[in-house]
Amino acid sequence: MPAEVTERIIAVLSRVPAGKAASYGTIAAYAGMPTGARQVVRVLHVYAESLGLPWHRVLRKNGAIALPPGGGFELQKALLQAEGIEVSRSGRVDLSRFGWSG
Fold it and tell me: Is residue 102 one of the residues assigned to a domain?
């Protein structure tokens, strides 16, 4: 059974709707952990696939895709674009436009 903080992060991740994106830090803050961005990364790594979490909607604080080219970058970009989120050639999303505000 996941720890309470993990459950809070999962609950927040589950609420990010299609067509919106959020930073790791934003997810952490909404889960009550304003400095817990790395914990969000760990939760996604462990639970994204098994729980069907929208991992592709989570970005760096500057709106950039964190995954490297050839290591998931292309898939994440394609998934975001399929939801109508505009992604620059370099893999950035304008969070002022497509950011989720909880």
Answer: no
pLDDT of residue 1: 54
| 41's tokens | 């990364």
Place of tokens 């996941």: 2
Domains contained in the chain, number: 1
Q: Which residues lie closer than 8 Å to 12 by C-beta, 6 or more apart?
A: 27, 30, 31, 102
Tell me the CATH number at 11. Answer: 1.10.10.10
pTM over 0.85: yes
Helices (H), 1-102: 4-15, 24-30, 37-51, 73-82, 95-98
